[in-house]
Write a structure and sequence with these properties.
By secondary structure, this protein is mainly α. It is built from 15 helices and no strands. α3 packs across α15, α8 packs antiparallel against α9 and α8 runs antiparallel to α10. The protein is globular, with a radius of gyration of 22 Å.
Length: about 300
């Protein structure tokens, strides 16, 4: 028997942002505050040049592991700011979406906040990151051993491809089974690291379907948003086709250069799209959890 609609879960985030424009405005304002404050912090700490280096490295990643490691070490002070801020921001907006799906009345009072619920989500994210790293290392070691044995018997290439796909599928399977951990942690007021495994039994395919639909929808939304941003930027710059490229790669030499009119417009636009993006990506798990709990209550 179907416990939930994968389509309804996938598009819940779009429904929320469409039907509750005031909440969308609040979430947009939250991201706008973060996007305006972070450059001030980075410039104040003298990390603006490192930010430019990070953007360059992301555009042109080095295939040499030693060079990539040196780059990460050099950018460690920047990561020390961005990663904690990212964890806090993600926890706050995820909790806001969970709150809106599971308890709409309370959401209208406190759409975005920081408290024990958000702190638990941060701890869970750290725990999941550690578990993910362990899983990747284990999968790499197992895959390497199997590939080595296969190479010894003359079936290295085909076996290597098969093992890679198998390990990737295994990681996706585990990720789906564990994906309700954040909403369980939020709803039940405790750190629920492994509870999702039992709750998602026999539901892997519909849950995966909901997530895939959500990703496809948000990619389409992002591409359409980027197209609109390009059109607006080109229009406001008097037909300058290179204007979009400049705002996508902001000038980090000074605050005045960074906060150009085009960049401010992009920050405003990016804050809105970030609000919608996070709603779409966080809402499916909350809907799935809500429907599973409702189904359990009827038994």
């Amino acid at each position: 028997m179907t416990v939930f609609s994968a389509t309804d879960a996938a598009f819940e985030g779009f429904r929320l942002t469409w039907e509750k424009p005031r909440t969308l405005l609040i979430w947009t304002g939250f991201f706008l505050a973060v996007n305006l404050l972070m450059p001030l912090v980075l410039f104040g700490l003298g990390l603006n040049t490192q930010m430019a280096a990070l953007e360059e490295a992301s555009r042109n990643p080095s295939p040499d592991p030693d060079v990539a490691l040196e780059s990460m070490v050099a950018l460690a002070p920047l990561y020390a700011i961005l990663l904690p801020v990212g964890l806090v921001v993600q926890a706050m907006i995820a909790a806001a979406v969970f709150r809106l799906v599971l308890d709409p009345e309370d959401s209208r009072v406190h759409p975005v906040q920081f408290g024990a619920e958000e702190a638990r989500l941060i701890v869970l994210a750290l725990a999941y990151t550690l578990l993910f790293l362990v899983a990747v290392v284990a999968a790499t070691l197992v895959g390497g051993m199997i590939a080595g044995i296969a190479a010894a018997v003359g079936a290295g290439r085909f076996t290597g491809i098969l093992v890679s796909f198998s390990l990737m599928a295994g990681l996706v399977y585990v990720a789906v089974r564990m994906s309700l951990g954040p909403v369980i942690t939020f709803s039940e007021g405790r750190l629920a690291i492994f509870d999702s495994w039992a709750m998602t039994r026999n539901l892997v395919w519909p849950i995966l379907g909901a997530y895939v639909l959500a990703v496809i929808a948000v990619v389409i939304f992002y591409l359409l948003s980027l197209l609109l941003a390009a059109a607006l930027t080109t229009l406001l710059s008097g037909g300058d086709l290179g204007a979009l490229g400049r705002v996508m790669s902001p000038d980090m030499t000074s605050l005045q250069a960074f906060f150009s009119p085009g960049q401010v417009l992009m920050i405003l636009f990016g804050s809105l799209t970030s609000a919608v993006f996070n709603a779409v990506m966080s809402a499916p798990a909350a809907v799935i959890y809500r429907e599973i709990r409702a189904q359990d209550a009827l038994r």
